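In the previous chapter we treated chains in isolation. Here, by contrast, the input contains two separate entities that must be folded as one system, with a combined length of 537 residues.
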Amino acid sequence: MNDIIIIDGLVKKYGDKTAIDNLNLRIRHGELFGFLGPNGAGKTTTVRCVATLTGYNSGTIIVDGFDIKKDPTEAKNRMGVIQQQISLDKDLTVMENMVSHAMYHMMAKREREGKIKELSDYFGLNEYLEMPVDSLSGGWKKRVAIVCAVLHEPKVLFLDEPTSGLDINARRLLWDVVRSLNRKGTTIFLTTHYIEEAEALCDRVGIIDQGRVIALDEPKKLCDAMGSTAVEYMSEKKTQYRYFQSRDEAKVFVSSLDSEENVLIRNINLEDVFVELTGKSVGAQK
Amino acid sequence: MIVFLKQTYYVAWGDLMFIKHNFLNIMVMSVMSPLLYLVAFGYGLRTGTTDIGVSYVAFVIPGIVALSSLSSSFSSTSTRMNVQRLYYKSFDEMMMCPLSLPAIIFGKCVLGILRGLMSCVLIYALGLFLAPELELSPLFALCVILSCLAFSFLGMAAALLARSHQSLATFNSLIILPMTFLCGTFFSVSSLSPVFQGMLYCLPLTHASECIRAAAMPGYLDFPWVSLIVLAAFGLAFFALDYYLLKTRKI
């Protein structure tokens, strides 16, 4: 079986509101998958359903061959989750948080000590181990959260908006970590608002809107399907976008405009695909 | 069974570290309220002998032990869980791990049970010194442990149901505080009208008070075995509620 996550017909409702509407998704072994969507599109709800943090109305979710409703223990053993909000126990030290997580996964003392040492070395956390976790900056807390999530060597790691609120240095460091984990064979499921993050990291991306997957492919293929060149220009006091199959076509269009001021010709990127498909910019409120 | 005990310990480990970091603070908090109750009600308001032939101090100390088991166990479990669930989100982390629900329930209640027991032991140790009518017996220990367990389970249910810190405070004011004063802790429930008695016997602390008091003064009171069974039933019901809330993710 080539798919490590199989989501079929997932429906999740909050009262009358349908948050996830018959979502079907397959994530391949070892891939770095990006899940994009505007706020409230259903990204986090999908992650919470798969991570068993919330129930769902119908559908099936299989993780590495285990149905999360029928075999939750086996499925949970294969998953690591880094939530959008840092979810460490702020009354405990860095080391105590790590030990707690290892214990939750029933790791034996020698095994967890070895793994904590290895990961602390890798993430440069050694000097912070005895500090209260609340005294660390956001970037360092995120690193602790990653260590906690990967201590038990999960086959799939879910990262829900992992870089939101981080400065660019911390964000790039986290990208390196994600790439490194992926190179070691961990399947990554990443939800993000940052289009450049998805473009830089992901083998494939899915775009979700109103609880449905509306596009799913490699970033380049999604862009190619729209053309090659984008033109940004001002019209009626708003920035307008037009997409063309070639740069020559774009230039012809630009020459037909009343004014060539404030006109930008560039390659089509994933954000264009997103805006075109969802009708809104990434992160915009519905 | 070994796996269950191991999981329970692993769940409780973080809270045990929390106790270690805040030991002095927790000790002071555990004894402060019971001591104030003892001074205010035991010495400040009433003296003399009660209907059952013991001093009022001897009568009121088992009541204070019962209310300490309620307030310490309930508040420790509910407050820490509420913070971990709503603010730290670290409770979610645990729910994503391959742990059994009974182990999570018992593990998360260890903090409340320990704090309740600390509080009860300290106040009863003082009581044994102040009131010679009081005795320490295995039955007394059983009643106190059962009471701490039941109220920890209740604390967990309250924390799982709470939508905010404020709603937990409201639950405290509407349910826990009235129980503290009315459920036979400072006076005998039998001195009230049958209607009030009926209402108070619907509350777990009344049964805890009667069991703990009778077990503390075996020479003066018959042990209310029915109340012990009712208290155990309350504990079981609170556990079942916790299980249901976690299982159905109604949290």
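Residues 3-218 of chain A form a domain with the Rossmann fold fold (CATH 3.40.50.300). Chain A touches chain B at residues 51-55, 72-74, 76-77, 79, 81, 83, 85-92, 96-97, 99-101, 103-106, 148 (CB under 8 Å). Compare these points with the single-chain example from earlier in the chapter.
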